[in-house]
Amino acid sequence: MNTRVRPIAVIVKAVCLFIVINLVYGLMEPPIAEISAYNVFVPGLERTPFGNKDDPYTVVIDNADAMFASHEISAEKQPDEIRVALIGDSSIWGESLSLENTLSGKWNQLGSQCGGKKIKVYNLGYPHPSIIKDLIFFDEVKSRQPDVIIWFVTLNTLMNQYRLHPFLAGNHERVLKIVEKYNISFGPRKALSEQKTGFYEKTLVGQRSLLARLIKLQTLSLIWSATGVDIHAEPAITKMLAPDVDKDTTYRAIEPGSDLRESLLLDAIDAGFDIAGETPILLVNEPIFIANGLHSDVRYNDFYPRWAYDQYRDLLLKQTQKFPFNYLDMWNTIPLENFIDTPLHLNAEGERLLAERINPTLLSMVCP
Amino acid sequence: MSVSQILILAVVAVLVNQLKKGRSLVLLAVSALVIYWIQPYQEPVNLIFWFPTLTLAITVIFWLITSSPEARTWKQNWDSVVILLSVVVLVDLNRYFQVEVFFITDTPRFQLVAIVLLGVVAVGFLLGRIKKFHGLVFTLAIIGLITLLIFLKTPLASTRLIESISRFRGKESGGVSAFAWLGFSYISFRLLHTIIDRKAGRLPPVTLGEYVNYVIFFPTFTAGPIDRLERFARNLNEPVLMDQEGWVDAGTRLFRGLFKKFILADALAWIALNQAFVPDVRSVSWMWFFLYAYSLRIYFDFSGYTDIAIGLGKLLGMQLPENFDSPYLKPNLTQFWNSWHMTLTQWFRSYFFNPLTRAMRSSKIPLLLPVMILITQVATMILIGLWHGVTLGFFLWGTWHGVGLFIQNRWSEWMRTHMPAWGMKPLGAHVLKYSGIFLTFNFVTLGWLFFFLPDPAMAWNVMLKLFGVV
User: Fold this and answer.
1) Which of A18, A60, A223, A232 to substitute to test the interface with B, most B CBs within 10 Å?
2) Looking at the domain assignment, is residue A7 inside a domain?
3) E runs forming strands in A61-188
4) Domain that holds residue A311
5) How far apart are CA B50 and CA B104, in angstroms?
6) Could you give the ipTM of this predicted complex?
7) Strands A81-88 and A148-153, sheet pairing
8) pLDDT digits (tens, 9 = 90+) for B219-248
9) Residue B5, SS3?
10) Which end of chain A is more exposed for a tag (fewer CB within 10 A), N or C?
């Protein structure tokens, strides 16, 4: 038998096989992002994967399917469970906080029950303030049988954007679908349309970055299972925010007195209620840091000048008139000392206070 | 090196191998360019240029010291001199070419580089006129090289120097922790080998091209194996003739290395125990699991690089020495060290362990054999540890292995004298073999704690945790 190997033949066969596998993969479009070791072999993550590339616990992944497949909300709903999903930005996700100190962590520590059922609160925050991102989360969460969705927004969430955030770029087809369906005047709509997925992007080569991240995410499930830690803990921030603020009165280059209506994606709130369907929603205006030092007469904090934030609250209230029982304005409910690195981020005690203050409304919704 | 760099170099290697004439000169130019190309980014940014340049300068000076007068003639070496000077000038001119994919664009000013090159040429000219060097020159060269190596391997020393340079230039140090003189650990051992052999009169005469090619040969530049000059020069002048099987063999080796390094090792790196998550691991079994992952990761990483180097070497017609031989499947620590980073242990055996043993045997104060074994093995392993870095962790890692080798040596001796028949019976041989593999692997794996955890106290704590003590 001739056992000599011909290098050219090996190369030709390898190239052919490589092309065929890529073609088949591209044609089949397997829902690879929905396959997860989490909730099957190890418990699901308690918040969406997020972190910097050097973090030993997590991987940067922008695919919503993969994020949700790894999240504990994708586990089977228990018969004695009332499932509450918290959707919001970094303050809900719990930046700079360990899991037990996030809003959902503190809320679950309250141990609320209703009719013998345990209220289990799920952290579906993500460190990017964007109402369009929230709509993608609504789309994902609706199939996970939530009993209530608590939706945290702030002025930054509702502001239209002009650059496409990596998360939105990573889910551009879904974003575009939602934006078109609800006719939302989303700033980077053109950029979204230009992100079209061609056949190359569907092949193994085209998806190599996503696939690598997916494999890493699944591999990191071992570390999650062994440590119960989902992100490298930053040293706890104990310093209070400074009471003094800048005297600048513009908000994102918008001059005082301007009408913010044009800049806010208020229609997207209606879209959220529509996507949620029958699931009750509690819309919450997030607490903010209200400075009391120098220039606090013109600004509430480093994020918001007073004129802009006041106008936003008025507009939000009007928008939510249709749902009067489902709106809570918590903007000034948390004491100053409970804010940490930004005017929206709370410390553990702040999260506990917030959970306690919203809990009665939640109970009134689930235990009428 | 990244995958794309390796694949580009593989193509270059194939092309170089096709050359009928001037192959070793082209290889010299390629290797010299590659050491600039793969030098990692660091602050101050000029070091990215100066480190490879210094590598070339030191190598040339060492050649002048170690080569015999008959190999030093201008006629034999002018082409290599021209190539090396051209490469340095070409790289420096990148400030005008602006080819960012190849190299930094803010290289030093040409006038400065020209002055340095003239200085090196002048030193070279003067050294070239000396017919025979005094033994003291060799000793001083050895001491100088070892001092430089110790300096570079001492994080605190190099950090302080970077800070001083930055202060002198009126800039922040940029948070760089130590010098990243790529490949210097290996370069220094190749240079030491040549100068020790020259001192002993064992070094064959080689041309500048052969010598520099040996020291900076691009496949082995960053991670070995550490070849011997006489073997390398012979192979360089008589490359392996490649037939179809040779190409397949080279390609297979290269891709096996890529698979080991970039698939297995890099994936294992995600779950390999590291200082960041050590404190959070909640159970002993997980701790063992992640430690095993580290153990496998370091093997696949290093042996993968070796496979890549050997594969690239084969594509160039060079048969490099093996560096790994299934080390984790060896039944005792001596065999492990005969199959892990083999060329490094051979180097230490030749230039430290054997001379030390000889010196102790011929010492006027007689030492008991076990004491002699303990001293030579522990000292050798501590030096191997410190070669990785002058830190307490590497010192302890070396000591761990030195003591382990001594215990294993005494155990083997005891078994041989007290239970000679045990290993002869099939069952006994099997039990010895597999329990030996198990013990050796776990001993080596535990030793890695001192290797990769920067704080020896943390390493000790983890070790206690692994045995449920804390």
Assistant:
1) A223
2) no
3) 81-88, 113-114, 117-125, 148-153
4) 30-366
5) 12
6) 0.87
7) parallel
8) 999 998 999 999 999 999 999 999 888 999
9) helix
10) N
